[in-house]
Amino acid sequence: MPVNNDLPEHALERLRGLRSQGHPGGVFTSDLSVNEFLLVRDAGFEPIGLVVGSSIYHIGYQQAMWRQSMEMDVLTQAMYHARELAMSRMEEEAAELGADGVVGVRLEVTRYEWGADMAEFLAIGTAVAAREGGHSYKSHSGKPFTSDLSGQDFWTLLQAGYRPLSLVMGSCVYHVAHQGMFQSLKNVGQNVELTNFTQALYDARELAMERMQTEAHEEKAEGIVGVRLEERSHGWGSHVIEFFAVGTAVTPIRADHNISKPQLILSLND
Predict the structure, then answer these.
(1) What angle do CA 78, 79, 84 make, to 5 degrees?
(2) What is the DSSP letter of 176?
(3) What global pTM score does this model have?
(4) Domain locations in the chain?
(5) For residue 71, what is the enclosing H or E element?
(6) 217: which residues sit within 8 A by CB, 6+ positions away?
(7) What pLDDT sits at residue 142?
(8) Band of pLDDT at residue 188, cut at 50, 70 and 90
(9) Alpha carbon distance 52, 106 (integer Å)
(10) Tens-digit pLDDT profile for residues 120-130
(11) What architecture does CATH give domain 9-269?
């Protein structure tokens, strides 16, 4: 098993005890439910072990104009980079195990009392290996695939003639302009669309979705399944919001796959 300097020694010690290609006598660990575990095995994959990636990141500062809606580029870049670091370390653990991919990936952001501008970005999932050779399930870059699909959805995807390529995501941290006092008074008692708010949130969501789609294009995917669009402020205040789009990029593995001409985004769950 090659030593990766980006992983802590205790992580390498834990990985050596798992049921990997180099250690068939080890145990496996998994956060899959019993039903998910059985369906992943029925799909032809063996769970190897729980893999984790972490990055504690200091998020910089950016000033926004009170009356101006705008993207907070510094914050967007920080959220992107921190998640990418966590994802890459999770993938490194999977590669150490000789895994073909990681299923059930969760991305979490947690703040601690150490500082208002610090957060831990965590990626966690179950590494799996295909029981039979002859077909590569890794991404086009040779890395283990990553997917946030449940065990049930993973099984269904393979039955339909598709396979996951990579977890793709898009982020946009956006400052929504405050409404002026006179405009607020003018709207009292009225049914009226607040167009400045509508346009700001619309633009921010579209930027996050577009960036997720760009990642899918780079992965040479045919579509994205299980898309989620999340909104969180992360303690920045009520008018600074992160819009985060995430889903699993997929590609066909059989000529008779069930979806002939899927759209880039196959499902959207707000």
Answers:
(1) 95
(2) P
(3) 0.81
(4) 9-269
(5) strand 70-71
(6) none
(7) 84
(8) low
(9) 10
(10) 999 999 999 99
(11) 2-Layer Sandwich (3.30)
